[in-house]
Write a structure and sequence with these properties.
By secondary structure, this protein is of the alpha/beta class. The protein folds into three domains: 5-128 and 252-434, P-loop containing nucleotide triphosphate hydrolases (Rossmann fold, 3-Layer(aba) Sandwich); 130-248, Domain 2, N(10)-formyltetrahydrofolate synthetase, CATH 3.30.1510.10; 450-532, Formyltetrahydrofolate synthetase, domain 3. The radius of gyration is 23 Å and the shape is globular. The protein starts with a helix and ends with a strand.
Length: 562
């Protein structure tokens, strides 16, 4: 019987992070150690490496995820291990896990089996403190706003038009809507507010997109925090918040280096959610990795309709970086679920039962994601994350359909069980794809109206018919245009569980009406984010949260984390 992911991680013999860094080409003076197995990289490395050419840039995305878990992070790590087995110098770049999902439904987010990054417990909990720094900077701005209201409100804030909530790195639905300032005048101005999970904070999105301290400070200054009684926009710079916020984020801007269980380097930095933010790791980490490695394997959140679209239209547009190829992760069991073989995970027999017809029906979902990646101008390889119950007939059905609809290759891998040795064939296919022509294409020009950019994403990427903008949304769009924000890209906040806005619509829904119920500006991050359907910026815990399984024994050893 295979050990649990946590047992595998705890039994691994890790190298000193200085060895990992040295092998990657990072000088010891550029490292800031956080114990023996993790470190930060000083930003001065970018100046030293400025003259080097960039390596190949590979983005890993996926089909529409299901509760079964498709193994996108596993495949990201596995692919790097396979490339290393072929003698390539490779670095993974990944997002940092949020403790909300770690203690909620998902559990840990460092891969699985032999395809993990370590030290797993540290990464899934406090790591190097970056997420805490983001929360502190976010909440400092909130405190400054309420302090301004309390002390005469010279900017004439309209208390009903303050857009900046507070932040917490934990799933806590009871904090979605709150009232602050209760208890009389000494406790501040009474008003409605709320909490967002830290991974959904604009500060986290900014951390991932900023390329220097001056860029970070400039973006923080441009956060739209509210509106005056006269209808004028009020920015973070108006309450003089950006300097102190930058000070809190000074160390967080430096990327973190850790290692895989096979001793290859991983730069893990920033962690914006993909359903409510842009869902990609930091530009800085990618820039460092691309100067050090021949191949950089990065990951965008959820499927091509969320993380990958935002990777192209927001991250690549901001950075100028151009990927060489994309990898779409699929599993037999997820495609069976999309194909209607079973409705929930309680029917375990049907999850592992061969059903080629259901797989083929579910391939309609895979087909749409291949079309999306092709629309971005990239060669695409389908990585079939293989599970023990998968049959050769099911794997062959996926491979054949993927090739028919435009994939350059479709290859199964067994990175969880075999590590890099189980991913060599996939690595070879990705190397071949990287040599094919790639011409990155943005989905829309920035000078289109906000409404039209929303329509293009909904129709071309999701397969929607018409869009439905509420009166509130239309009024807010008019205000954003008055603020000069109409030329920003769109970061759609929607469910990751469907190509549509409705998590109940599996596989490949088409022609549905796409409702936009709210819209907000992340002007410091540099995008507008519409909210579709019933999307939340503060998740809740399930009936049986993962936190209930976590424990620590008398020696300090953690169990149940993953």
């Amino acid at each position: 019987m295979m050990k649990s992911d946590l047992e595998i991680a705890q039994s691994a013999r890790l190298k000193d992070i200085r060895q990992i860094a040295a092998a990657a080409g990072i000088e010891e003076g550029e490292l800031e150690l956080y114990g023996r197995y993790k470190a930060k990289i000083d930003l001065s490395i970018l100046k030293r490496l400025a003259g080097r050419p960039d390596g190949k840039y590979i983005v890993v995305t996926a089909i529409t995820p299901t509760p079964l878990g498709e193994g996108k992070t596993v495949t990201n790590i596995s692919l790097a291990l396979g490339l290393a087995k072929l003698g390539k110098k490779v670095i993974n770049t990944l997002r940092q896990p949020s403790m909300g999902p770690v203690f909620g439904v998902k559990g840990g987010a460092t891969g699985g089996g032999r395809a993990q990054v370590a030290p797993m417990e540290d990464i899934n909990l406090h790591f190097t403190g970056d997420i805490h720094a983001v929360a502190a900077a976010h909440n400092l701005l909130a405190a400054l706003l309420d302090n301004h209201l309390y002390h005469d409100n010279v900017l004439h804030f309209d208390p009903k038009e303050i857009y900046w909530n507070r932040s917490l790195d934990m799933n806590d639905r009871t904090l979605r809507q709150i009232v602050v300032g209760l208890g009389g005048t000494p406790n501040g101005i009474t008003r409605e507010s709320g909490f967002d999970i830290t991974a959904a904070s604009e500060v986290m999105a900014i951390l991932a997109l900023a390329e220097s301290y001056s860029d970070l400070k400039g973006r923080l200054a441009k956060i739209l925090v509210g509106r005056s009684r006269e209808g004028k926009p009020i920015w973070a710079r108006d309450v003089r918040a950006e300097g102190a916020m930058t000070a809190l984020l000074r160390d967080a801007l430096k990327p973190n280096i850790v290692q895989t269980l096979e001793g290859t380097p991983c730069l893990m930095h920033a962690g914006p959610f993909a359903n409510v933010a842009h869902g990609n790791n930091s530009i800085i980490a990618d820039r460092v990795a691309l100067k050090l490695a021949d191949y950089v394997v990065t990951e965008s959140g959820f499927g091509s309709d969320t993380g990958a679209e935002k990777f192209v239209d927001i991250k690549c547009r901001a950075s100028g970086l151009k990927p060489s190829a994309a990898v779409i992760v699929a599993t037999v069991r997820a495609l069976k679920l999309h194909g209607g073989a079973f409705k929930n995970l309680k029917d375990k027999a049907k999850v592992g039962e061969e059903n080629v017809d259901a797989v083929l029906r579910g391939c309609a979902n895979l087909e749409k994601h291949i079309e999306n990646v092709r629309m971005f101008g990239l060669p695409v390889v389908v990585a079939i994350n293989r599970f023990p119950a998968d049959t050769d007939r099911e794997i062959d059905a996926i491979r054949k359909r993927a090739l028919e609809v435009g994939a350059d290759a479709a290859v199964p891998h067994e990175g969880v069980v075999r590590g890099g040795e189980g991913v060599v064939d996939l690595a070879k296919a990705v190397l071949a794809a990287c040599e094919k022509p790639a011409e990155l294409k943005f989905l829309y020009p920035l000078d289109l109206p906000i409404e039209e950019k929303i329509r293009i994403i909904a129709q071309k990427v999701y397969g929607a018919g018409e869009i439905d903008l509420s009166a509130k949304v239309q009024k807010r769009i008019a205000f954003f245009n008055e603020c000069g924000l109409g030329g920003l890209p769109i970061c759609m906040a929607k469910t990751p569980a469907s190509l549509s806005h409705d998590p109940a619509l599996r596989n490949r829904p088409t022609g549905f009406k796409f409702p936009v119920t709210d819209i907000r500006a992340a002007s410091g991050a540099g995008f507008i984010y519409p909210l579709a359907g019933e999307i939340m910026t503060m998740p809740g815990l399930p009936a049986e949260p993962a936190a209930a399984r976590v424990d620590v024994d008398a020696t300090g050893r953690i169990s149940g984390l993953f």
